[in-house]
């Protein structure tokens, strides 16, 4: 059967979420900055019109604040996460299979569904705009690669009004449109591969569609061969509609300022472990290895550089935050060197296994039911009363090393104390 | 060495929450799913209630019909006291409802969120306060105006 796949995403997602609760941001140039207020990660159309590119460091565009009334916001992941969960739940109702691809986009499998597929795209657009105040774009095609490309067309070609289906064009019209699109717009090509392809005279999407698949595999890899097949309407990538258990859990953040003291590194590593362990228990896993790593700032050539990492094995897999913190602390203390200005610390939990299938050690006490109860209780408290209501003192109280989020909006949908107000 | 081959499934509350549905932890319908009568049964006499176990009533079931489209807002000011909406009350706003004339709505007006009663007659929209101290607002092209959502319920603490 002919495969029909749609890629749906929310336009300017983070900025759009902010605007829902702060309508004063409408019609103004707005950007949302990454962790630590470093780089631009979301832009309103007005900000795009000023020529602000994705990923630029904020200091490069700071002048727009005065000259053009640019508004900048720190990222508010509590808000974006909740709005994303709502959007994904709504989108999931439109098709039997859904693969959530990122915080603001998902694939939907419309294969075999009756009716015009673009009508579904328009219904989605109506529904999500009304329910959430977020505008979506939908791209439709016979493969994931075509759906992704169609989404780009839906966004950039006004006449399609946010919904574009390749199958509504004739073959010659499809080719004519593909001829106008740069090869770099193809899913998985990106900035690194595009120049290499261009050197082989593959400049447009159409060039890529007509490329020799064997040559693609020889010169590059099987992924690129698959991309060519997908551009020709052959679906090679299935939808992963089951959210798989993660095989590793990573938690890391840059500091708000360089950190030198071991005590501050201890606090930061503990706070990362606390977060990672919550995620570990949420997927009902235990882990048997804890890795601690840290970096100095590689962009500061005057600073001495030191980027150590250490893996600490555990005798018995655990999901107990206290035991994970202890492991991380011993790792940290063995790699810590004074005299460096650290920029970032992170922890990674690996050797993940289902919590109930833990291999027990002859010489170690098995996980106490008391410990399990304690963790379950803490998780429940934090779920009901908000993150870090019940936490560990070793993560620090004032946490002066934390990154800056100088302009963070309220957690409108996840905190009783920060609800939007209506006058 | 010992590893359990077919372990009982642990049921942690987070496991039972369908993806995307939770609104806020406190109003999560799956939060305290302790059925009545599930308590300890003393050896001897079985509780006569065990045959009649039902879910305890959950307020969010009553107040939140469309969880994805429902948002909570806090009332600021006294422009709607006539409709029983007071400063500090909690508005349960359902964006999936259609804003029929006569309903209390939240609207964006010139960059702010406001709660008023919506009136529509002969194509003209008016936002009416329910307090004589506040004039009606006839919506015109000069307003930056949009209906944000329909107030489904108001939670008031006396």
Describe the structure.
The complex is a heterodimer of chains A (423) and B (158). Chain A is an alpha+beta fold. Chain A is 38% helix and 20% strand. In chain A, a hairpin with a 2-residue loop joins strand 5 and strand 6 (105-109). In chain A, helix 4 (77-92) packs antiparallel against helix 5, helix 10 (213-219) packs antiparallel against helix 11 and helix 12 packs antiparallel against helix 13. Chain A is globular and about 65 Å long. Chain B has a domain at 66-155: Ribbon (Umud Fragment, subunit A), CATH 2.10.109.10. Chain B is 6% helix and 28% strand. Chain B has a seven-stranded antiparallel sheet, with no helix packed on it. In chain B, a hairpin with an 8-residue loop joins strand 5 and strand 6 (137-138). The termini of chain B are far apart. The model of chain B is unreliable at 1-39 (pLDDT under 50). Strand 14 (421-422) of chain A pairs parallel with strand 1 of chain B, so a sheet runs across the interface.
Strands of the largest sheet of chain A, in order across it? 5-6-1-7-8
Fold-level CATH name of the domain at 66-155 in chain B: Umud Fragment, subunit A
Describe the sheet with the most strands of chain A: 5 strands, mixed
Number of strands of chain B: 7
CATH hierarchy class name of the domain at 66-155 in chain B: Mainly Beta
Task: Give the overall silhouette of chain A.
Answer: globular
